[in-house]
Specification:
The complex is a heterodimer. Chain A contains 1 helix and no strands. Chain A has one domain (12-48). Chain A is 81% helix and 0% strand. Chain B is globular and about 75 Å long. In chain B, helix 2 (55-82) crosses helix 5, helix 4 packs antiparallel against helix 5 and helix 4 runs antiparallel to helix 6 (167-177). Chain B has one domain (18-228). Chain B contains 8 helices and no strands. Classes of the chains: A mainly alpha, B mainly alpha. At the A-B interface, helix 1 of A face helix 1, helix 2, helix 3, helix 7 and helix 8 of B.
């Protein structure tokens, strides 16, 4: 036991992949919700 | 007392949508450059080896998650003092982005904890206070989803945000105040110079990204608020209004 961590690239790749996936998914959700809200606003005004 | 009629900022023309998109694009470029530097060019750490490279995304995420929630706290205070709806819209955006970054922070931390501590999670002060922070601000988002009255929603969530923000400095100082398994705060003073650049570039990358996200998310909140507070269109004006520009078109 040297106290030095050997390898570990799988954890590094997992951390970067999760970061990219979460940020991309959140960005996409903002885009989709923004589009849906822009489409909903005129309909809501007409309903009133 | 907050009066709906005095709050007209939601009717103002919003900033050009190219600004938040440019910020998001700049953030992505910085993150790509910083991650390349951290993964391919920076040296590995003497004890943690390559696992330490997780620091280049984990630490900037932590800084920015807390910064976003401090911004949310500022928005809450400004809404209560100025009665301006734009601060409520920004509060909603900042809390949501802050919760996403805090959750991401916990996931990255777990991935780092497994090879270094031997466990995915430990109830140490830093991790526990972070979990409390996520739950508290997540609860405010749930509150906003359930309350239909815009005025009650804005005031209640601003007050809850101010209360929940008390946990943010506790998260930051927890590693100093208690004997913690988590290492001390990482900063340019506490890490080797060889690690500075990827850390800084990624920190600015996430800063630009969350600023753009908060601007875009605030716009969605403004659109919803506009449709909630808009007066009903008279029946005789219905045919004229159908041909006019929609209420949220400027956003």
């Amino acid at each position: 036991m040297s106290g030095v961590i050997q390898g570990g690239w799988e954890y590094v790749i997992a951390a970067y992949a999760v970061t990219a996936a979460v940020l991309a998914a959140y960005g996409a959700s903002i885009f989709l919700r923004g589009r849906a809200e822009r489409q909903r606003a005129p309909r809501a005004a007409e309903d009133r | 007392m907050i009066h709906t009629s005095s709050n007209t900022s939601m009717m103002r023309k919003p900033v050009d949508s190219r600004i938040p998109l440019a910020l998001v694009a700049l953030g992505v470029c910085c993150l790509l450059a910083g991650s390349y530097w951290g993964l391919a060019r920076a040296p590995s750490e003497i004890f943690m080896g390559d696992v330490q490279r997780i620091m280049y995304v984990h630490v900037p995420t932590a800084w920015n998650a807390m910064l976003t929630l401090v911004f949310a706290f500022t928005c809450a205070l400004l809404f209560l003092f100025t009665n301006d709806w734009k601060w409520d819209n920004r509060l909603e955006g900042a809390i949501e982005v802050g919760v996403v970054l805090s959750l991401l922070l916990c996931i990255q931390g777990s991935i780092w904890a497994k090879p270094t501590w031997g466990v995915w999670w430990d109830w140490d002060p830093r991790l526990t206070t972070t979990a409390v922070m996520v739950c508290a601000f997540g609860g405010i988002l749930a509150l906003r989803a359930f309350v239909e009255d815009p005025m009650k929603r804005a005031v209640w969530s601003a007050v809850c945000c101010i209360v929940a923000s008390a946990d943010v400095p506790i998260v930051y100082f927890s590693v100093k105040w208690w004997n913690s398994l988590h290492q001390a705060q990482s900063s340019p003073e506490t890490v080797s110079k060889a690690f500075h650049w990827p850390l800084r570039i990624n920190a600015f990358g996430i800063l630009f990204l969350w600023t753009g996200f908060v601007m875009l998310r605030s716009r969605i909140a403004a659109l919803r608020l506009r449709s909630e507070l808009a007066p009903p269109i008279p029946a005789s004006a219905g045919t004229e209004a159908a041909g006019a520009a929609p209420a949220g078109a400027a956003l």
